[in-house]
Write a structure and sequence with these properties.
alpha+beta; 21 helices; six-stranded mixed β-sheet; seven-stranded mixed β-sheet
């Protein structure tokens, strides 16, 4: 093809565009923290000289005609390696229903192999496989292709002609920075507009880039259909990855994800062509493209089923966390229900779900970065026009789906579960203390300081000294969002030697010593050092445009609209005293508590053993969850003006 008339010039034009794309990415890359960048540069020095540690492989020179020819010359049939992995090679007996998603089924190998074949063993897992010469018919086709003979397409149609890529429509050519604007988001008031649009022009980072979020809130009935929502996201993502590959080459990125109140589309990259990509993606979200989704649906559904089956091979510590989330999140569906729905899903049922999704929508848009206010308003108006054309009606804020959190009653509760897999020998013990809706009040700051002081001593005592298990960790656990977020503390252990009742007794014994033996033993300097590290973390300025966008979007998403939230928390942290941290440690063990015990097969003899905590047994997580109250929505109260 390169030998054809005019092909050389076309190849050089395509190369020039590629080189410019790479140069723009390198020039306007958003650098992370200094330590991470230094590690990256050091690793690159194994490949490139120190002078090229940054630009090597990123900045391209002129068109390497000789190198391209050399590569093509090396691409001969004798150098082809084809890897084949398929269910067709698995044993006759099917795997068990709960077989792990990534499990390997080894095929009994035939007694003899074709000439030139090798029988090998994979070194890590001991899986046997074969290495065979490429069959003659395929080799002949490869040799014909080498001679320039094209194979017919599917159905006998003529093969499409080879061609170089067309000019990339998403390639940015306008890179000027907009006039500096207000860096904090402001609500844009449009005439007779139903959409909510927040915007901020941010040019301080010197990057001609922008970030845009399109949040489509939909009715609870669509959000609660987790299986179809996840399948739609997976099918859509795979379709877009192929259809919009040129946009990725041009330095634009996007993601579509499920949200507690609907779906969220994020787009980022060079601001010049970003609106074009955004509108293309919005159209894909709003319309049903059955022809494009049909060949992708069944493979994605099968993969989703395998992923859900993998749940039944989870380790006991992960299962303990899973059961805790089931207890604390009233709208969460168990994996069994999700698996049943995934097995029953069809392309028609997915189309019906999409119709329910778009029937009633509310649009929220956030534009941030190198975008003038007028340009951002035009983008939001066009998005609103397309959403209005696709939906039947708008969705009032009062009808948005929410994510309630169970309010654990005073006292101690315990859920005891058997293992889900015959292979799981380890046991998991999880203790959770619910502290309430702390927001950025002094109590949240005291909790963060306490956890900072507790993390290393707890690990040293329970993991290193007592050697209770492989995994020992503790941290804050948050459910909900914004001002309605509910904070708690958890301690988790995964053990092969001890059953959950013994693990819980050890945790209880240790936590009772924390106020005096751990917190009370700290010197003033030790306390100030630990607290100061937290303050420094929360006072760190945004290092990149992406970080600045993320912080502001979080305030909009959680409906706090508090751009100084981190600074307020840093102020609260500076005010925490050693005595306050010690008092909180003393109150912690009397907070409402949930314990989750997942017994490994090695410890089933201890199932039902008294852990000595006086906790009330939970016979059914479904019944217990249904009987609990939920925390009030602070955000809803604030929105109502009460």
């Amino acid at each position: 093809m390169l030998a054809e008339e005019g092909a050389g010039a076309a190849a050089r034009e395509a190369w020039a565009e590629l080189a410019m794309e790479r140069a723009l990415r390198w020039r306007f890359a958003e650098r992370g923290d200094a330590a991470a960048e230094a590690r990256s540069w050091a690793a690159r020095m194994h490949v490139y000289s120190p002078q090229l540690a940054l630009s090597g492989g990123r900045l391209l020179g002129g068109f390497p005609a000789e190198g391209v020819v050399a590569c093509l010359e090396a691409m001969r049939p004798g150098g082809v390696l084809i890897s084949r992995e398929s269910k067709a090679f698995q044993a006759v007996s099917p795997p068990e229903e709960d077989d792990e998603a990534d499990s390997v089924c080894v095929v009994p190998l035939p007694p003899s192999l074709p000439p030139g074949s090798q029988r090998l063993t994979e070194p890590y897992y001991g899986v046997q496989y074969e290495r065979r010469p490429i069959a003659s018919p395929l080799r002949e086709k490869l040799q014909a292709a080498r001679r320039g003979e094209r194979m017919p397409a599917a159905g006998g149609a003529p093969a499409p002609p080879l061609h170089l890529p067309a000019p990339n429509p998403f390639f940015a050519t306008e890179l000027e920075m907009k006039e500096e604007g207000e860096p904090q988001p402001a609500l844009q008031a449009g005439e007779a507009s139903d959409a909510v649009h927040w915007h901020a022009t941010e040019v301080a980072f010197g990057r001609p880039k922008a970030h845009v979020v399109l949040h489509l809130a939909c009715p609870a009935e669509a959000v609660s259909d987790v299986t179809h929502m996840n399948l739609w996201m997976a099918v859509l993502d795979e379709h877009l990855a192929t259809a919009l590959y040129p946009a990725a080459l041009a330095g634009l990125s996007w993601s579509v994800s499920r949200h507690t109140s609907g779906a969220v589309l994020r787009v980022s990259g060079f601001s010049h062509k970003l609106p074009r990509l955004l509108l293309t993606l919005a159209d894909q979200l709003l319309r049903w493209d059955g022809a494009a989704y049909a060949p992708r649906f069944e493979p994605r559904r099968e993969k989703h089923v395998r992923e859900l089956q993998g749940h039944f091979k989870q380790t006991s510590d992960r299962l303990a966390l899973y059961y805790l989330h089931l207890l604390l999140e009233p709208t969460r569906l168990p994996k069994e229900a999700q698996l049943e729905a995934a097995r029953a899903a069809t392309l028609d049922s997915l189309a019906a779900f999409h119709a329910r999704f778009v029937r009633r929508l509310k649009l929220l848009v956030f534009t941030y970065g190198n975008l003038a206010a007028a340009d951002a308003a035009a983008i939001a108006a066009e998005l609103e026009s397309r959403v209005s054309a696709a939906r039947e009606a708008t969705l009032p804020r009062s009808d948005w789906a929410d994510s309630p959190v169970t309010q654990v009653r005073a006292g101690a509760w315990r859920l005891t579960m058997r293992p889900l897999s015959a292979e799981e020998k380890n046991s998991g013990c999880l203790l959770y203390y619910q502290l309430g809706q702390l927001d950025v009040r002094p109590e949240r700051a005291q909790l963060l300081v306490l956890l900072r002081l507790l993390q290393q001593p707890l690990f040293a005592e329970l993991r290193t000294k007592q050697q209770l298990g492989y995994v020992v960790r503790s941290d804050e656990m948050r459910h909900g969002s914004g001002r309605s977020c509910v904070s708690g503390v958890y301690v988790l252990i995964l053990s092969k030697d001890f059953a959950p009742p013994q693990l819980q007794r050890s945790i209880d014994d240790y936590l009772r010593t924390v106020p005096e033996a751990v917190i009370g033993a700290l010197t003033a300097d030790e306390f100030q050092t630990a607290r100061g590290a937290l303050v420094t973390r929360f006072r760190e300025p945004d290092r990149t445009l992406a970080e600045a966008f993320s912080r502001r979007w979080t305030a909009i998403e959680e409906e706090t609209y508090d751009w100084a939230r981190r600074a307020k928390l840093a102020d609260a942290l500076e005010a925490v005293t050693l005595e306050q941290a010690q008092a909180l440690a003393a109150r912690l063990t009397s907070a409402p508590r949930l314990a989750v015990h997942v017994f490994g097969n090695n410890h089933l003899a201890a199932f039902g053993e008294n852990d000595g905590s006086g906790s009330v047994a939970i016979d059914s997580w479904e019944a217990w969850r249904a009987a609990q109250d939920v925390w009030g929505d602070v955000g809803a109260i604030l929105r109502s003006g009460l």
